Amino acid sequence: MPLANPPAPQLTRTRSAVTAANLWRAYGSGEAQVVALRDVSVQFASGAFTAIMGPSGSGKSTLMHCLAGLDTTDRGTVRIGETAITGLNDKALTKLRRDKIGFIFQQFNLLPTLTAEENILLPASIAGTKADPEWIARIIATLDLADRLTHKPTELSGGQQQRVACARALATRPEVVFADEPTGNLDTRSSGEVLRFLRRSVDDFGQTIVMVTHDPSAAAHADRVVFLADGQIVEDLHRPTADAVIDTMRGFENRVPLAGEAR
Amino acid sequence: MLRATLKGMAARKARLILTSLAVVLGSAFIAAALVLTASIRATVDDLSGDAYKGADVIVQPVEPENRGDRLVRDGVAAETLAAIEANGDVADVSTTVTWMVNALGEDGKIVGGFAPTMAVNWGDESVEREMREGRAPEADGEVAVSAQFVTESGLGLGDTVTAYSLSTDETPYEIVGVYGYAGGRDSLSGSTELAFTTTEAQRLVFGGEDVYSAVAVTAADGVDADELLKALEPAVGAESEAITHQAYVDDLNAESAEVTSVIGYFLLGFGLIAVFVSVFLIANTFSIVIAGRLKEIAMMRAIGAGRGQIIRSVLAEAGLLGAAAAAVGAGLGVAAGAGLTSVIANGFLDTATTSVAIPWSAPLAAVAVGLGVTVLSALVPAVRASKTPPVEAMREAVKADKPITGITVTGLVVTLLGAAGIILGLNETFGSDDANLIAAAVGAGVVFIGVALLTAWLSKPVVALLGAVWSWSFAGRLGRLNASRNPRRTAVTAAALMIGVTLVTATATLLTSVKESLAERFDTTIKAELFVTGPVTASVPATFDPEVMDEIRAVDGVEAAVDLYYDLAQIDGTEQYVNASSDIEGAVTQFGGVVAEGSMKDLGEGEIAANDAAAEQLGIGIGDTVTATFSRGTEAHEFTLVAIIADNEESDGFYVDPAYTAEFYTPKPNMALVDVADGADVGDVTAEVEDLIADQPSVSVQNHEEYLSQVTVFFDYAIIAIQLLLALAMIVAVIGVVNTLVLSVLERTRELGMLRAIGMTRGQTTRMVTVESVTIALFGALLGIGTGLLLGWIVQQALAPTGIESFAIPTALIAAYLAASVLVGLLAAIAPAVRASKVDILGAISYE
């Protein structure tokens, strides 16, 4: 293979961590049927930070749930790394989520009975394995949580709790981290901290992150923004700036009636 | 507001049902207890009504006043019978001759347990008998036996049965018939029966005198019962009395009412305990349900609902739920009571038919208790709910638990108050026995509540300790942490289980202590190694020939042997135990007694010795005179008190010369104490003595343990009976644990969703909930065992002056309680664990 080829777009150059092909997902039936995903195909590059945006009801959360093996698809396939997850049973899916996927939730979702450190080690504990202590130490140092490890979640601020949740998501070095509105419950300063960490974990640790958000400034931290509307991908923006995201959203909002007409 | 309450209730059906279960159960127990009691009484009354069916007047001997000893019976004289038969108003007469006998079974041992073995004349019409095989006895050497006797003795038609009574020696009889009773019953209340000819029955019961236990008289046409009663008056005389059939039945009913009311109190006690446990369940369920609705309540407050409205809303919900659940419970309880009547009637009373009586008080009391308890239990959660600040509606955060200092201090104070009540009551501080009993009982109840309040404080360390067991599994560790995350909730749930375990532990501890105290005193005061005696349950006290005593004394290795005769005599108008022995001094010293005053080397004619307690009771001293009439004595004897015995703890009453034993109810010795010489082999001596009494089947040789286990067998039965309490309390407790867990699982849905999302398997989720359940159950059991031991110890200490000096812990039972509580935990975990493992991950973690 000639090494001197001109640089191809990032998407094709790197291996893809998550691949969705022709995903369909509908809820309900008959008159009340809502189609959340219509024929969505998308790839998420390994070692990249991708944001999924879209208005409420656009299907962005459904897409993430399907990608993460939390929801089933009607048609189409999802691969995490080399593993096709479509059709796996609950046990296999559970194991996959445990070993290959990290989660960051809007509500932090820490276990109130465990200390910060125990929450970080939770996935390893559930798996019955020992987390790599050097790796954990590095995450904790990066997130500046060293002096909070023995605290219970109730003794931590929202930003601190979400940083613990970030550490938990990264603790097992998952193939991909899914973040569902990770800054939705945080103030601006804490949001910045969390987003900068997510950015760093991609740049320094080569982590793959897929983040659902409706905040343009959050999306601006990503390498790429995928826009969803009415269950379809309508825009794919690389190296976005907040302004570019806002512009795209505006333009895309203007297109909504058109999309309606197209139906 | 009511509309909102109703709609809210409809929206939370699952929680509603769980709350109701506790109320339903409590009400059902009350209703069932009342129905069961009324039905058993009705059934027993019917049974009494069947006695001497068709007779108008019953003539029976006049019982002497103040006569507790029922072993020796009086009868209606033959002349009286003849006079009755000669009366013109009499159409028909039937006679009854009956009392207790001993009969030997196939194995040569005395037949029967707690129910007696009765002799009766075939011809007795007090009950309806139905011959099943063979025929009626026609000769004195023949007998017909009840089907129950066949079952218990192992003997059958054509076999020979040996029987004897107080008046007769062992006599062989040929079994010529086997019979049952009306309705296809094998027995009357579990007793065994042998039917003889009338003359043989008279020999057994009255020593051959021509007298009768009762005479049933039927009036001639046109004569009613009262007229017959009047007409018979001259014939009956002073030694007998005539009563109408109705009066006879009423007497029987009054006697059985004593038994049935005891059963009734027992059942009602069960019901009240169930209700008491339900209070905890209901209060807990309401607390949890309201905790889960804090946001909703805060929202109501935010839009302008007043605190009073919130309280009324919660109480209205409790009232509606309580009324509905109590009504269902009352219905179920009435049905269960009716159903159980036949089980109890057939199983324990051997009645042919059962009558179900449903008193109005049953459903009314059940509904009132259920409704009242629910509303009262909801009061605290309601007030707490009303204190919710409106701002809670906007918050979404995990709240730290409220401090438990207040509740802990209160718990400590309440516990001490309760303990004080028990101690004061048991020390008879108050004026009347009733007041003391109430103080002790209320004190025990207050201790429960106090400890229940303390459980929140105790839960952290105890649960942490228990948790060490599960630490090997991460899911187990999470479960343990969940069990201790809400100390109040865990505490109240565990408290529900604690109550039952406390009750049984306290009772078992006390009974075991009594047993142990008896055993210890027995071992320290009684020198004899061997006892020659019969079973405690024999209908007629076992006896043996006095001649065998000399043979026993001649056995190599026997240091001393003392024979003992017992009687229950009338001394100065009181009922007293009287002992006699050919070695009177040995009889005293064998039991650790010492002569404190006077001398009793050889008691002669007209001389009597007394234990210090008996002398004190009668207020007599050395040289004073008493009059005594023995069981079979026809006249009173005068005795002079010559000795007072102290420290004699195993034997009551008085001592007289064996010459008087002819007037005792058994003229032969009832027991022999054999003191084996130091260095002699107890086994060898036992074997030799056994050979000597081989021809006397009603007695056997027993060592200390064997004899003690016979004496204390009643305690064993009592201990078994109270385990029923545990079973009941456990059922209620299971529901309590299920309630708490299901509600906790509902509350933690999001957390469970997160755990499942990040890779916790269903199996791990199930394990987590199960460990939480078992931890709560074990915690409750440990608390109950602790409180029970404490209560048992307090009562034992209070009773120590009466001789209950040892404190014994029933270790095997306690181990069983712990095992049972683990089982409760496992059972209670099933439904909540399945629910938790099936939690919809998406639904749990989504916010949109």
Please give the share of residues in helix of chain B: 55-70%
Mean pLDDT of chain B: 83
Helix count of chain A equals: 10
Radius of gyration of chain B: 34 Å
Percent of sequence in beta strands of chain A? 15-25%
Report strand order across the widest sheet of chain A: 6-7-8-3-9-10
Largest sheet of chain B: 8 strands, mixed
The proportion of residues forming helix of chain A, as a percent range, comes to 25-40%
Number of strands of chain B: 24
Structural class of chain A comes to alpha/beta
Query: CA-to-CA gap between the ends of chain B?
Result: 29 Å
H-E order of chain A: HEEEHEEHEHHHHEHEHEEH
Count up the domains of chain B.
Answer: 4
The residue ranges of chain A in which pLDDT falls below 50 over 5 or more consecutive positions are 1-13, 256-263
Question: How would you briefly describe this protein structure?
Answer:
Chain A is an alpha/beta fold and 263 residues long. Chain A has helices at 10-13, 60-67, 90-100, 116-120, 122-127, 133-142, 158-170, 188-205, 216-219, 242-262; strands spanning 16-27, 34-45, 49-53, 75-80, 83-84, 101-104, 176-180, 209-212, 224-229, 232-238.
Task: Detail the topology: elements first, then pairings.
The complex is a heterodimer of chains A (263) and B (848).
Chain A: H1 10-13, E1 16-27, E2 34-45, E3 49-53, H2 60-67, E4 75-80, E5 83-84, H3 90-100, E6 101-104, H4 116-120, H5 122-127, H6 133-142, H7 158-170, E7 176-180, H8 188-205, E8 209-212, H9 216-219, E9 224-229, E10 232-238, H10 242-262
Parallel strand pairs in A: 3-8, 3-9, 6-7, 7-8
Antiparallel strand pairs in A: 1-2, 1-4, 4-5, 9-10
Chain B: H1 2-11, H2 13-49, E1 57-61, E2 76-77, H3 78-86, E3 90-96, E4 98-100, E5 102-104, E6 117-121, E7 129-134, E8 142-146, H4 147-153, E9 160-164, E10 171-181, E11 192-196, H5 198-206, E12 211-212, E13 214-219, H6 225-236, E14 240-244, H7 245-291, H8 294-302, H9 307-349, H10 361-386, H11 405-426, H12 433-467, H13 474-485, H14 487-525, E15 530-533, H15 548-553, E16 558-571, E17 574-580, H16 584-589, E18 594-598, E19 607-611, H17 612-618, E20 625-629, E21 637-646, E22 654-656, E23 671-676, H18 682-692, E24 700-703, H19 704-711, H20 713-747, H21 749-757, H22 762-799, H23 811-837, H24 841-845
Parallel strand pairs in B: 6-11, 8-10, 17-22, 19-21
Antiparallel strand pairs in B: 1-13, 1-14, 2-12, 3-13, 4-6, 5-9, 7-10, 8-11, 9-10, 15-23, 15-24, 16-17, 16-20, 16-23, 18-21, 19-22, 20-21
Helix pairs in contact in B: 1-9, 2-7, 2-9, 2-10, 2-20, 7-10, 7-14, 7-20, 9-10, 11-12, 11-22, 12-13, 12-14, 12-22, 13-22, 14-20, 14-22, 14-23, 20-22, 20-23, 22-23
